[in-house]
Design brief:
This protein is mostly helical. It has helices spanning 3-6, 43-46, 51-65, 70-80, 87-103, 110-134, 145-149, 151-170, 175-197, 206-232, 236-263, 266-269, 275-278, 284-292; strands spanning 21-22, 28-29, 138-139, 142-143. The protein contains 14 helices and four strands. The protein is globular and about 55 Å long. GO terms for molecular function: metal ion binding; prenyltransferase activity.
Length: 295
Amino acid sequence: MSGRRQAVRCRISAAQTQPVDVLSSGAVVNPKSSEPGRIPISVSSLLEVVSEDLQMLNNNLKSIVGAENPVLISAAEHIFGAGGKRIRPALVFLVSRATAQIAGLKELTTQHQRLAEIIEMIHTASLMHDDVLDDSGMRRGKETIHQLYGTRVAVLAGDFMFAQSSWFLANLENLEVIKLISQVIKDFASGEIKQASGLFNSDITLEEYLLKSYYKTASLTSASTKAAAIFSGVSSSICDQMYEYGRNLGLSFQVVDDILDFTQSAEQLGKPAASDLVKGNLTARSFLLSRRNPN
């Protein structure tokens, strides 16, 4: 069964680990912790093990875009300098280091490093296009590319980033990974089409919501975690487990993101609050509320 079909067959079950809360600051706490004050764990602490990898990635991103067009360079510097925790490449590095240890590798390969850069480029390109489609003026507390440079530049910059990432992907010379990551770009388009065709549709099913969430978020995380494992040279069984991990994490991330759109302010989000609801995009909270009270 394909990963996209599996993505919609999810159910919520009791976890074996202690539950955690995610604070608006990005910190994670254990609500049942016996420690006084429920000491939060920051995301930066969780990612400390790959901090040097992320620093190298940040240094490489701007130069990777290329120097053919000054406008593209300016756009890239703006969006790559807008902050963000680089969660997706961090996930690549974390899985890469975990699976590399299993395979007996002492250091990450250049393929691991390039994969993380490709994933961030693909994610960034999708944000550029998303902001145009959603007519968003703010992203991470800063003006979006299309707000600064116009729609044409934003669309072309996103196209260029997709093309550049595809070129670097081809140079990895691993057909399995090429197919895996190429599917992500197709899924992005499928997710946007499904979202656009379902605006203000109160009859959306849980299966449809999860499938759209897979296309828009979990496809990238599942492909990137599996690709990282492939480059470590671990067994196909472990690679498949990394795919499942990335898929479930991506779906969870999207659900939480949808809920935060309702519960946080524009200052906390770095973009207008409740924008999904205003535009008719029914997400997790609105979907569950409509199921509870159909009227």
